[in-house]
Automatic annotation (TrEMBL):
Name by which UniProt lists this protein: Sel1 repeat-containing protein
Transmembrane intervals: 20-43, 74-92, 99-118
Disordered: annotated segments: 310-378
Keywords (A to Z) from UniProt: Membrane, Transmembrane, Transmembrane helix
Biased composition (Basic and acidic residues): 313-355
Alphabetical list of InterPro entries matching this protein: TPR-like_helical_dom_sf
Length: 547
C-alpha cells in the first residue's frame, strides 16, 4: 500500500512537472529542496534542543531521585523553555535576543546550583564524589582526593564500606581491637578493606574494626592491605598449635609478655558474661567457640566484672553477717521475751497458787474445827463461827472451787453452811461421812439428833466418829450417856474412857470434863469407903449392943 501511494505521488508529480517548461521545473525543484531542507533543519534543531533538555532533566532526576512523572514534567518544561529562548537568540529584536541569552544562562546556572546543593558521597554509577581525612577529633569529608591542606594528611577515597564506618564513628563508636584468629580483612563483594591496622616497632600487627587512632600509641590506624593481611596471618601462624590450658588466675599468670608486650592469654565469654582464660588459641571444648585474643578493653571489663563480683560477694557477706547479727539479736530478743513470758507465767502460776493458797488459808482461818485432826490452824469454835459465817462461807467456797479434792475445805464449807444453808451442809457432811472424814461424823450426827430427831442414827454416827478418833463424837457420846440415851454396862467408866481419849486428842471440853468426872469418881469412892466404914462401925456397934 505504501509503495503504491509513493508511486502514485511520484506519477502525479511527474505529470505536473511535465506540463511545465524547463526553467519552471528547475525553480519548482529548487523550492521543494529548500522547503524539505528547512524542515529537516528544523527537525534536527528541535531534536538537539530535546536531548539538551533531556540530559538537563536526567541529571536533576538522578541528583534528587525524582519519580518518572515529575521527571517528564521537568523535561517538557525545560524543552519548551529552551525552544522559546533559543528562538529569541535569532530574533531581529535586540530585546528578545537579550531575553534569550539571559534565559539560557539562568537555566545553565540554575542547573549547576541545583546539582551543587546535593552533598552526596557517590554518584548513581557508584563513583565516589568525596574523600575522607582522619583528624584527632573527627573525620573530615572533602570533595577532592589528595593531601588535606589543613591537616597535611592524605584524603583517601570514600567507599560504601568506609561510609558505613564513618557513620559508626560519628555515632560514638571507636576502634576496637579484633581478637578473632580468623578475621575478615576485605569486603567479599567489593574487595574494599574493612579492617585497620597498626604496627609497632617490633613488627607486631594489631587489627582494629574501625578507623581512628591507636588507643595506646596514638598512631593513626591505616586501612589494611593484602600484604599486611598476609603478614598478620604469618604472625598468627607462628603460635604453636596445642591444646590450650585454662588459666584460673590471669592476674598471676600475666596478660602480656614483659619483654615483647605480646599477648599471652586468649579468652572465651559465655552468654551470661562470664570469662574463661586460656594460654593459647583454640576452641572452647563445650561450645566450640573460637578463643579470642585478650585486649586491654577485655581486661578492663573483666577486672570491673571481678570488682563487681567481689563487691557483690562482700555485700552478700555483709548482708549475711547483718542477717546473722539480726538473727542473733532476734533470737536474743526472743530468749528475753521467752524468759519474760516464763517469768510472768511463773509469777502468774505463783500468784494463782498464792490466791488458791490464800483462799485455802482464809478458809482454814475462818472455818476450821479446833478438834479436827486434819486442821492446819488453831480453828474456830462453833459459836465464834456463827459471827463470821458469811466470810467463812465465801472463803471456803473459793477454796473448794480451787481445790475440789481437798476434803478439809469441803468440811469447813459444811460448817459455815450450817448457818446459811442447812440442806447444803447436810449434803456435804453426808458425802464426807461416806469418805470417812472423821470430823464430819459429829456434825452429821448432831444434825440427825437435833434437826431430824433421829437419835439412833446420831448415836451410830457418833460411835463411828469415835472409832476414827474424832474428839467431838466422843464428847457427844458422853453427853448422850449422861442423858441415858446410850445404854452401857458401866456408864461412868465408859464416860471416863471417852473423855480421857478426847482429852488426849486435844479437846478442851473433854479435858475439863475428864477432870470433873475423875474428881466425881474419886469422891464417889471416898463416899463409898466412908459409907462402908460407917457400916462396919455401925455393925460393930449393933453387935456390941446385942451382947
Amino acid at each position: 500500500m505504501e509503495v503504491q501511494a509513493i508511486e502514485k505521488v511520484r506519477s502525479v508529480a511527474s505529470q505536473t512537472l511535465g506540463r511545465l517548461n524547463a526553467v519552471t521545473q528547475i525553480a519548482v525543484i529548487v523550492l521543494a529542496c529548500v522547503l524539505v531542507g528547512g524542515l529537516i533543519f528544523w527537525l534536527c534543531n528541535e531534536l538537539v534542543y530535546y536531548y539538551v533538555a533531556r540530559s538537563y532533566t536526567e541529571e536533576l532526576a538522578d541528583a534528587y531521585d525524582l519519580n518518572p512523572g515529575v521527571t517528564r514534567t521537568i523535561l517538557w518544561a525545560s524543552f519548551a523553555a529552551i525552544v522559546v529562548l533559543a528562538g529569541y537568540l535569532f530574533s531581529f529584536s535586540k530585546q528578545k535576543r537579550r531575553v534569550g541569552y539571559a534565559g539560557l544562562l539562568a537555566l545553565v546556572i540554575g542547573h549547576s546550583l541545583l546539582l551543587g546543593r546535593i552533598d552526596a558521597n557517590f554518584r548513581k554509577n557508584g563513583v565516589a564524589e568525596k574523600c575522607y581525612v582522619m583528624t584527632r577529633t573527627s573525620i573530615k569529608t572533602l570533595n577532592r582526593v589528595g593531601i588535606d591542606s589543613e591537616t597535611g594528611r592524605e584524603c583517601r577515597p570514600l567507599t560504601p564500606q568506609i561510609a558505613e564506618k564513618i557513620a559508626e564513628y560519628r555515632n560514638g563508636h571507636r576502634p576496637r581491637q579484633i581478637t578473632s584468629n580468623d578475621p575478615t580483612f576485605f569486603d567479599p563483594t567489593t574487595g574494599e578493606p574493612v579492617a585497620w591496622y597498626s604496627k609497632d616497632d617490633s613488627g607486631q600487627i594489631e587489627l582494629f574494626d574501625l578507623m581512628g587512632f591507636h588507643p595506646k600509641t596514638g598512631g593513626e590506624l591505616v586501612p589494611i592491605t593484602r600484604e599486611v593481611a598476609e603478614a598478620w596471618n604469618a604472625q598468627t601462624a607462628k603460635v604453636v598449635r596445642r591444646v590450650p590450658v585454662r588459666v584460673d588466675d590471669p592476674e598471676k599468670y600475666g596478660f602480656f609478655d614483659p619483654t615483647t608486650g605480646a599477648t599471652k592469654i586468649w579468652y572465651w565469654r559465655s552468654e551470661s558474661g562470664d570469662y574463661e582464660f586460656y594460654d593459647g588459641p583454640g576452641f572452647h571444648p563445650r561450645s566450640g567457640d573460637q578463643f579470642k585474643i585478650v585486649t586491654r578493653d577485655v581486661i578492663s571489663e573483666w577486672r570491673q566484672q571481678q570488682e563487681a563480683v567481689a563487691a557483690r560477694k562482700k555485700a552478700e557477706q555483709e548482708q549475711q553477717e547483718k542477717e546473722a547479727r539480726e538473727r542473733a539479736q532476734r533470737e536474743f530478743q526472743r530468749s528475753l521475751e521467752a524468759a519474760e513470758r516464763e517469768r510472768q507465767a511463773r509469777e502468774t502460776v505463783a500468784e494463782e497458787l498464792r490466791q488458791r493458797q490464800q483462799s485455802g488459808n482464809d478458809c482454814d482461818r475462818l472455818a476450821a474445827n479446833p478438834t479436827d485432826v486434819r486442821r492446819t490452824g488453831e480453828g474456830v469454835p462453833f459459836d465464834a463461827l456463827k459471827h463470821q459465817a458469811d466470810q467463812a462461807y465465801e472463803a471456803c467456797s473459793k477454796a473448794v472451787a480451787t481445790f475440789p479434792t481437798e476434803l478439809r475445805y469441803q468440811y469447813q464449807l459444811g460448817r459455815a453452811a450450817q448457818f446459811k444453808d442447812k440442806r447444803q451442809a447436810f449434803d456435804i457432811f453426808a458425802r464426807l461421812v461416806q469418805a470417812n472424814y472423821p470430823a464430819a461424823f459429829d456434825n452429821l450426827g448432831g444434825m440427825y439428833l437435833y434437826d431430824r430427831k433421829d437419835a439412833a442414827t446420831a448415836i451410830t454416827l457418833f460411835k463411828r466418829g469415835s472409832a476414827l478418833d474424832d474428839a467431838d463424837s466422843m464428847v457427844s457420846l458422853v453427853d448422850l450417856i449422861d442423858k441415858g440415851l446410850v445404854p452401857t454396862p458401866n456408864p461412868e467408866q465408859t464416860k471416863l474412857a471417852l473423855l480421857h481419849r478426847a482429852a488426849e486428842l486435844g479437846h478442851a471440853g473433854a479435858q475439863r470434863g475428864y477432870e470433873l468426872e475423875l474428881q466425881k469418881a474419886n469422891q464417889d469412892r471416898i463416899n463409898q469407903a466412908n459409907q462402908q466404914q460407917m457400916m462396919q462401925l455401925f455393925g460393930a456397934f449393933v453387935r456390941g449392943v446385942a451382947r
